[in-house]
Amino acid sequence: MQHTGGVSAALPVPRTVAPGRRLPRRSVQLFAGLVLYGVSIALLVRSELGLMPWSVLDQGIARSTGLTLGTVSILVGAVVLLLWVPLRQRPGVGTVANVFVIGLALDACLAVLPRVEALPPRLALVVAGVVLNALATASYIGVQLGPGPRDGLMTGLVRRTGRSVRLVRTGLEVVVVVLGVLLGGTIGLGTVVYALCIGPLVQLLLPRVTVALD
Length: 214
Hints:
Blueprint: H1 23-47, H2 53-65, H3 69-82, H4 84-87, H5 93-112, H6 119-142, H7 149-161, H8 165-183, H9 189-209
């Protein structure tokens, strides 16, 4: 998530399947999910009530460098993907698409989405952002075309260190949030709502959007 913040690592790992099975349907759902993921981040940004952990880091870097948030998302995703090499992780087409599509969709949405001042609509943006992010996450996990760079980093570290998913995920997210805050990233209510709700929501939605490959 994204970029998913480690959500997929807590869910059942899809079995290996022939990559060409139902590829048109899977490709459409993959790119729709990634675009929606970028839109969901933009909604949380405009709420100004806190972002998901990796986006806190992206926002902090963006504010420190003057780059757009989407550009930073792409650059961070590419760096994280390079960290897969020593962990011997294998990316899929969905992994590579994740790096670029989310960042491009994020910048495009921020370009047209105005800032919101009143608190009630900002709260609505938080709810919409978290729900859409869960749908987006379930959608691209459900096509089984490769995990996001950040999820792959976490699962690779779990495999190499022997530590639990919960411990590795928490450790990574604490590190990126602290770095992001130090650089000027935003945490708040949205961060808490995301942390509490994203796992159960993805668990609920994933069976409904997983593409059957039998």
